Amino acid sequence: MPELPEVQTVVTTLRPRIVGHRIARVTLHRNDIVTPESIDLRKLLTNRRVTDLTRRGKRIVFMLDDANRFFIHLGMSGRLTIETDDKPIEKHTHLVLQLDDEKELRFRDPRRFGGVWWLGSEDPGGTMGPEPLEVKLDVLIEKLKRTKRAIKNVLLDQTVLAGIGNIYADEALFESGIHPLARADKLNGEQAHRLHAAIKKILRRAIKHRGSTLRDYVDAEGGKGKFQKLHRVYDRANEPCHTCKKPIKRIVLGGRSTHFCPNCQNKRK
Q1: DSSP code per residue over 117-169
Q2: What are the chain's domains?
Q3: Mean pLDDT of all residues in the chain?
Q4: DSSP code for 227
Q5: Whether the predicted model's global pTM rises above the 0.90 cut
Q6: Which of 2, 23, 33, 124 can bridge 56 by disulfide, Cβ–Cβ 3.0-4.6 Å?
Q7: Structural contact between residues 212 and 225, judged by C-beta atoms closer than 8 angstroms
Q8: Quick check: 60 and 53 in contact, CB under 8 A?
Q9: How many Cα atoms within 13 Å fall on the side-chain side of residue 12?
Q10: Which residues, including other chains, have CB under 8 Å from residue 268's CB and lie 6 or more apart?
Q11: Binning pLDDT at 50, 70 and 90, where does residue 267 land?
């Protein structure tokens, strides 16, 4: 699933191509990708101008010239790309926004875990936690103290931090030397400080390398990410750790694959 670095890269590559442009026509191939189902998305978007494009967590938020907003979530396999109107539309393309410059914004999602959410004037963040790149250390420490859950599960909780998923939780925990099964409320001040710094460092590096392309993810121009080449633990089960050469271990935690180095992230340490 695209996480904060991938979604930020989509926003960065899409913003100059769509902000300031008018949506001339809306083609919706599947009504069930829209929430709430009762709204008329065509009517709400046609002839509206996009005045801003931002990211909140894993959400791509569109601001319109009537002060209304909607967001697109890429789900697991979603792609949001700008195409010329003469390019054939691929299978599983559910939404096409034709712009006033003869370009089209196309949302394609084979697995249909993503979709379009109409916000109107509501806060695009909803119940999500703070942004990981902006969260203060004392805020993070307070959130960790409130739960006895494994730290890996806490990092995946979007009400704690918005935007971190499986890849960057694993990478940040390795960077900070913290075992994924360690209880969040048992982390000491030094560990919390390391984790806080690691989260920001890993996310910034991933954004710099345009995210991680493991299967479906591409940016708004169809370009793939490169950060997967720099993964230290994620998706590297049984491969040697780059630091200590011990094999990377994979476990299932909360229904999600979790990768770590049992030596570098020794729980007893």
Answers
A1: EEEETS-TTTT----TTT--HHHHHHHHHT--SBHHHHHH-TTTSSS--HHHH
A2: 4-120 (3.20.190.10), 137-260 (1.10.8.50)
A3: 96
A4: G
A5: yes
A6: 124
A7: yes
A8: yes
A9: 14
A10: none
A11: confident
What are the strands of the beta sheet with 59-64, ordered from one edge?
A: 34-35, 115-120, 69-73, 59-64, 50-56
The DSSP code for 240 is B
Of 76, 86, 109, 79, the C-alpha closest to 14 is: 79
Residue type at 177 in one-letter notation: G
CB-based burial label for 233 (10 Å; 0-12, 13-18, 19+): buried
**How far apart are the C-alpha atoms of 20 and 252, rounded to whole Å?**
45
> Is-contact 144 183, C-beta < 8 A?
no
Percent of the chain with pLDDT over 90: 93
Give me the phi and psi of 159, to 5 degrees please: -85, -10
CA dist 224 and 209 (Å) reads 10
Residues belonging to the active site: 2-3, 58, 256
